[in-house]
Design a protein that fits this description.
The protein is α/β, with parallel strands linked by helices. Helix 3 links the parallel strand 7 (about 85-90) and strand 8 (about 115). The radius of gyration is 18 Å and the shape is globular. Helix content is about 50%, strand content about 25%. The protein has a 6-stranded mixed β-sheet with strand order 1-2-3-5-7-8, with helices on both faces.
Length: about 160
């Protein structure tokens, strides 16, 4: 079994942690995400993940999030977003659900996104995705190996 390396970075108003391939964001209290905040958050997230593909779990319960247009656009356009495999958001209000659904639709995310009421449900979904992704990769590897054998037979 691979060793899981945990990296944690604490900001004044949120904590980022990375366990193997899950990046967890846990804001503390009311968060106002301005352009400088989002830039720093993305840079630290890229650093602690090693800029490798990963799943994102954002626990936004009991948090009021205010963002600016500039910070949303900066986050959406950042190349680090290409490393996301899925987003799991833990929310506790209808307003948060509506805001996240709007942002997901507006920025046309190309990865699975799901909203949850508990962190445990979100982690279980991420684990299901990990298993499915491993199975898909194993199947693709098998198909590639078969095609190489077929190409060798045709060449001879």
């Amino acid at each position: 079994m691979d060793a899981i390396i945990t990296r944690v970075h604490a900001f004044e108003r949120c904590t980022l942690s990375f366990d193997g391939d899950v990046l967890t964001l846990e804001p503390i209290g009311e968060v106002v995400a301005g352009p400088d905040d989002s830039k720093m958050l993305l840079e630290v997230a890229a650093m602690i993940t090693g800029n490798q593909p990963h799943y994102v779990l954002a626990d936004l319960r009991n948090v009021i999030i205010h963002t600016t247009v500039d910070s949303r656009e900066r986050i959406a356009a950042h190349p680090f977003n290409n490393q996301k495999l899925a987003y799991a958001f833990v929310v506790d209000s209808t307003a948060q659900r509506l805001l996240i659904r709007f942002m997901v639709n507006f920025y046309d995310l190309k990865v699975p996104v799901k909203l949850f009421c508990t962190k445990e449900e979100a982690l279980a979904w991420i684990m299901e995705l990990k298993i499915r992704n491993r199975q898909d990769k194993a199947h693709a590897d098998h198909l590639n190996a078969d095609s190489l054998v077929t190409e060798e037979l045709v060449a001879h």
